[in-house]
Design goal:
Chain lengths: 232, 220
Amino acid sequence: MFVLIGGGGRTGTRLASLLLNQNYKVRLIEHRRELLTYLHQELPTEVIYEGNAVDPSVLEAAGIREANVVAAVTSEDATNLAICFVSKTMFEVPRTIARVNNPINAWLFNEKFKVDVALNSADVLAHLIQEEMSLGDMMTIFKIRRGSYSVVEEKVPAGAKAIGIQLKDMALAEHCVIAAIIRNGVMTLPRGDSTLKENDEIVAVASAQGAQMLSELLAHPVYPTRNGMKKE
Amino acid sequence: MNFIVVGCGRVGAELCYHLFKGGHQVVVVDSRRDSFNRLHPDFRGRTLEGEGLAESVLERAGIQEANGLAAVTNSDTLNAVVAHTARAFYNVPTVVARNYDPNLRPIIEAFGLQTVGSTYWGAQRVEELLMNPSQKVVYSAGNGEVEIYEIIIPESWNGKTLGDLMNPIKQCYPVALSRAGRASLPEAGTKLQTGDLLNVSSTFAGMGALTERLSKKAEA
């Protein structure tokens, strides 16, 4: 697998290191002088291609015709959009992934600019923070493509109705499957006779209706207050 | 007509004024408020401070009703992306992207956009005038690769045919001949007279060859 990365900022450099560790073939394109010095300290020389990643002739010289994936991760949204568009229309790259810097530009990252996957840094981080803060609320990990199903994660709070009931007796069938239980950091694949305990985390595949049913079973009676005491 | 100009630099400000003087409704968008200081004092169009790629900014600029959009910032990538957005998301009938850095022209071409490269075009015109101060360009096609020139037939070619003059020259075609204020479509057999105004459509190289030939005396 050959991945071509446009942009050698922190994201691009980190991505290149990550992929190199997994034995991907990687090339990273960057033209800003001030970044190149740093890049040469971080990455093997043959990985770095000096040039403007938005320029079709640079993409071609960097080997885009052999690339399986192009990741456009510069700090400029217009550049990332143009890299994706050029990669697909001129070089028929199978998959394009783009970083969204400014959420107000997120609406452009779709098939009209030949973006297959858009990752909105601010949005991704905001969701992670929300997840860390969540007090047992259900988090959608991802929606299954264009379907009405999603993969959700939820922590089992103290006092939830579901505690102690065997999964097969929860009457969730057809709408929701509990796919994993994470207890004390260890993941197990549950069976029909498994039961949930307080502070378990569960991962489930659910329809919208199933997610609603699951959420009722896992409803926590009260939110903890700031000092950890429960409200009356 | 309704036009949106994205980028209020020198080119943008000048374009706004031209469109306004032509009686059109103009909205000019720039992310920096002080850019609007470049606008002509008589300009009476709307100024809109904001990012040219923001949906809310484009919609407030009236992109749904726009007849044309010009992306004329000093970033080629941004111009290409703004122009493509206007065309692909809003079906704006006419979009033009300015090419700022001639090296980045292929980006705009990759989007298949109409473009004007003021830097390249300006340099080429200055070069032409330096080389041949007497010839006049009356129309410039594309990015100036082909232009229509107006030349005056010198006495040395009086009485010769147009074919005699043009036949050995490549990349240069006669398009009109004006004599005493009347123009006609010239043919190879047309006899030239001193002072005739000849329009030719030509590349820079073709014009060089024609200029050289005109400066020599016709073979008998």
